[in-house]
């Protein structure tokens, strides 16, 4: 038997010799200068964020309330129908709708008779004044439209914007002729689809 100090162990031929620890570190960290560098990871969710202008918005066609009166001055009828449209069922109470239309009709009732009188006077004196006598009725009609705009804005701020509706006075073609008339347009405010919480 050989003495212990002369005994040598041989590794098998197929076994690999382990590299020194320094070489292992150089494989894991090729450059020590990059060791403490903080890299910003790109968030994949940010790529899928879409601006609100490009989101699909669903809103039904607006409701058109046409004039129902027997007198029309420059496209503005002397009253609107108070009948509740069925498309607004579940959106607004019929009583609230009727109250709003009644307020508009009260404004028209107060202003339009004066406009009609000025229109008749303007037509009688039109030849003598070369059409200048129609200016008062044009200004009065504009003032009436402005007061209805203010009334509808007040109604919108008071109630209808909270219900997802917007009322406005708009100019549209008559159903029976090519003439223009003023109608109350009840628009549905668009609802944006919610893809992720705030």
TrEMBL record:
Domain Golgin subfamily A member 7/ERF4 stretches: 78-167
The keyword Transmembrane appears for this protein: yes
Pfam families noted in UniProt: Erf4
Residue stretches spanning the membrane: 118-138
Keywords in alphabetical order: Membrane, Transmembrane, Transmembrane helix
GO cellular component, as recorded: membrane
Location within or outside the cell: Membrane
InterPro entries according to UniProt: CHIC1/2, Golgin_A_7/ERF4
Name the UniProt record assigns to this protein: Cysteine-rich hydrophobic domain 1
Natural source organism: Sparus aurata (Gilthead sea bream)
